[in-house]
TrEMBL record:
It comes from the Bacteria. This is Aminoglycoside phosphotransferase domain-containing protein. InterPro entries: Kinase-like_dom_sf.
Amino acid sequence: MNTRQTVAPLDATDIEDVEARVLADLVDRMGAVASEELTEGGSPARLVRVSLPDGPDQVVKLLVDLPGAVDGHDLESFRVKIRQIEKVRRDAPELRDVYTELSSEFYGDEWAAYTMPFYPNRDIAEPLRRGEAPGERYETELKAILSDLIGHGYLRERTPADRGQIADIHGDRLSRRFWLLRQYLPAELTEADRITVNGVSCRNPLELAMRVIEDPALTAGIDPPHLFHPVHGDLNTRNILVTDGDRLAAGGGGYRIIDPRGTLDPWDPAYDLAKILFSFTVWDPGLRKGFDMASTADGWTVAIRGGNYPSYLEAAHGLLPLMRSLEPFREMTAGDPGWESRYLLGHAFHLLGEAACRLSDIKKRTNEDDDAALSPIDLAQGHYLYGVLFLENAVRQLETGGAVSQHEALRLLG
């Protein structure tokens, strides 16, 4: 299950050269002019805005095959994303005007690209970073968007789930990716039986992933009874874009959903909604600011450099109550008593899965405060340390009480 593969090269000069050549060729074929690079996304794909001589601006999204890239960042997943976009737009007509729109597709032996219209936008969390309280805009906007995605999207399809979904989705994903973490992170973090993070003694996360896989009774009470339409799969806050705040406030669109995971099969929405939570707790502030980490005789410490955005922390604590206030959410989770626990366990696994993703992302990232380069290894290690902490907490709660509490989980944020 942990077979070693060719390591994704962190010195990505060759890949960048291929990207530059392919992008230049695509822009020339379109008769366009490249105007700016878009760097907000969390995936390794390159996004370039281009101007056309006789039409609105487009965005070219290109992924060149990166040997050893984790699933979700690899070329096969990228190609399925295009099919998933088509599926959602076909099967959920109410979402057609707010979901990523495809203009053209291009393929090479070791790359793929597609184009979509460019819409001036802001990600849904942008007002929170500027200090707005969640109640000013964000909560109203997210309620409208989730009501659409759940009511017109996820609930379009409901199918009984086989037992062991958590093991298949979360446990197996971490076990598949752990070889890459071992390749780049200190052995004391990946090989030790116990890892102390922020004063908490934690078990090795691979051990916990294998526990989830090999002991079905541990998660039997929180496995999903049903799966739903595959609306997305990577619903972080950077993939929820506001294009017209007035229209969104009036309930008439005004947003775009971009960059699905790349799956055509029935899906567990708890996976997606936990991605919004992890955007606020660690992922988005970590990618923007970096991490402060230290190893001492007492173990490891980790924190968001300069501190998380205060409104992000408020939004993280308020996300579950916000979702519970929505009638489509209550319909979707009826008869699913393990939903909250699965959402919080998924959040912990997302942090660890993201650690490996950082090692297969060749984009150059900088600290938003001083433009200092952010090392992909440091970004991976920061996510890993937080993941170790949150996974230990979630599994320990399952072992002792059979459920995971948001209060107990989010108190780890301080």
